[in-house]
Design goal:
The complex is a heterodimer of chains A (about 110) and B (about 110). Chain A is an all-beta fold and about 110 residues long. Chain A has no helices and 11 strands. In chain A, the strands form 2 sheets. In chain A, strands 2, 4, 5, 9, 10 and 11 form a 6-stranded mixed β-sheet that branches. Chain A has a 5-stranded antiparallel β-sheet with strand order 1-3-8-7-6, with no helix packed on it. Helix content of chain B is about 0%, strand content about 55%. Chain B is built from no helices and 11 strands. With about 110 residues, chain B is mainly β. At the A-B interface, strand 5 and strand 10 of A face strand 5, strand 9 and strand 10 of B.
């Protein structure tokens, strides 16, 4: 079945440093979504990428979708303690007929040291 | 957007018992999704709950262990049956309108 691999599993940074997490899929994705889960919270949608080579920015966050639509990245510039949490990428679920099914990457747990 | 109320938020249960988790959505949706998130892990889809038909389960999940009800377009329940410590996880319900919205999660500990 479809898999979405995400690295690294953990990342510890000093406040002000940059952070990047990467996702790779075994198959071409129609779209990829990114979610953030704060400690003790539930996943919250950040963004969706659809087009090959697409780049989107949200303040200090930059999201990229690869040309082949098999990989994606999330880059945070100058991390802050409020960025702490787990970042997940998610692609459409296998089996495809049930709209809305998602296959999540393993997530990257970001710790920011003040 | 969607507002999802999920309860209970947490519970500690004895092994061998069952727990029913409820999700209420503030608007009608065709499909609701139930996920499990084991400690420190990613989200794994358990099943898709459709109103008026049986839920569709993902590989590794069976109806006898995780029965689901979907009595109307705004409500669903997931039961975790005959629990063991391995069932200790966060259980999340979700609906999708271009993006996924999640309930607050149920943090289940089985002792």
């Amino acid at each position: 079945g479809q898999q979405v691999m995400q690295i690294p599993q953990y990342q510890h940074v000093q406040e002000g440093e940059d952070f990047t997490t990467y996702c790779n899929s075994s198959t071409t994705l129609s779209n990829i979504q990114w979610y953030k889960q704060r400690p003790g919270g539930h996943p919250v949608f950040l963004i969706q990428l659809v087009k090959s080579g697409e780049v989107k920015k949200q303040k200090r966050l930059t999201f990229q979708f690869g040309e082949a639509k098999k990989n994606s990245s999330l880059h945070i510039t100058a991390t802050q303690t409020t960025d702490v949490g787990t970042y997940f990428c998610a692609g459409p679920g296998a089996g495809g007929t049930s709209y809305g099914k998602l296959t999540f990457g393993q997530g990257t747990i970001l710790t920011v040291h003040p | 957007s969607a507002v999802i109320s999920q309860k209970p938020s947490r519970d500690i249960c004895q092994r061998g018992t069952s727990l029913t988790i409820q999700c209420q959505v503030d608007s009608q949706v065709t499909m609701m999704f139930w996920y499990r998130q084991q400690p420190g892990q990613s989200l794994t889809l358990i099943a898709t709950a459709n109103q008026g038909s049986e839920a569709t389960y993902e590989s590794g999940f069976v109806i006898d262990k995780f029965p689901i009800s979907r009595p109307n377009l705004t409500f669903s329940t997931l039961t975790v049956s005959n629990m063991s410590p391995e069932d200790s996880s966060i259980y999340l319900c979700s609906v999708v309108w271009s993006e996924a919205f999640f309930g607050q999660g149920t943090r289940l500990t089985v002792v």
